[in-house]
Amino acid sequence: MPVLNRIADFSDDLIQWRQHLHRHPELGFECYGTAAFVAERLRDFGVDEIHDGIGQSGIVGIIEGQGPGPTIGLRADMDALPMDEATGLDYASTVPGRMHACGHDGHTTMLLGAARYLAETRNFAGRVALIFQPAEENGGGGQAMVQDGMMDRFGITRVFAMHNSPGLPVGMMNTTSGPIMAAVDTFEIHVQGRGGHGAMPHLTADPIVAAVAVVNAIQTISSRNHYALEDLALSVTQIHTGSADNIVPDTAWICGTVRTFDPHVRDMVRRRMMQICEGQGLAYDVTIRLDYVEGYPATVNDPDQTAFAVQVAQDIVGHDNVQGDSGREMGAEDFSYMLNERPGCYLFIGQGETASVHHPAYDFNDAISPIGASFFARLVERAQPVVR
Fold it and tell me: Which of 82, 99, 166, 373 has the lowest tally of Cβ within 10 angstroms?
């Protein structure tokens, strides 16, 4: 794998940066310590401009190339997850209830590696915008940075990002043209019944029976209301109610997630869930309220930028290690907000047989940091070559 020689030279620094970030995870928009670490590294590299506070705690660094040209954006997410780490590593999280279980410490490191190389070599025209984003896991940091005017402020013309992929061989890279990740919505269903003694259910309006009926009816949306060839994942993930064996409770609460690609499927699911809640409320003499929240939109890769990214990936990891039509998946990504504003591409980079993301035993594979950094750097050089 032709990792760029200069990046290979400082691969030990990449490991140190990544393991520092792993020890100090931060959640959501509260990535101020991570942002400060990133800004310090960028200053060390000689990055021309460093702009903080974008999307609350996001950072944008600007590197000037040789001569005029457009601005290409490279994005990495910085936030961690609210969970306890079980790796037993000597650089494990020092913050109880927080860990980098999705590899954002590695994503940040890969972009820092590319930044160091690009600031040293500047073998490109125009500018590169280094986008370090908070709150990918929850909160929509990508949307916040876009709403802060990042794309227009820095004149970004196209944008790229990547994510590590456990189970994919080390260094392999996958992507696909068009939709690659789903839109994600969440729902909460509040059932208000009339509680009472478990020995006298005839005096109650039982929210448990109504909640079970609602959950069962929701399952028919995928099997009976949905066209089977269009992607949909609809999952009820929590039901909470009751406090004792002899009490019929007053209330029940249900929540879950909806993953779609097509807006008309999203609209159909929401409409049917509203109808189900209204109907079951009448059937069981309870009041049912649906709170449906539309989240991240689908992540859609631009065909031309995807073809370009595939060519660059092949240059870095070899033709046989790149799949440019890997298909789409039902996970979600707030990089979608940036792709809605500018053409670009989102890719996956293999990190070998490790624990899955969002697992307490997960750890980012440091061996892929030089590969990802080399891909980002070569992407800029190929996108905006110096005219000599």
Answer: 82
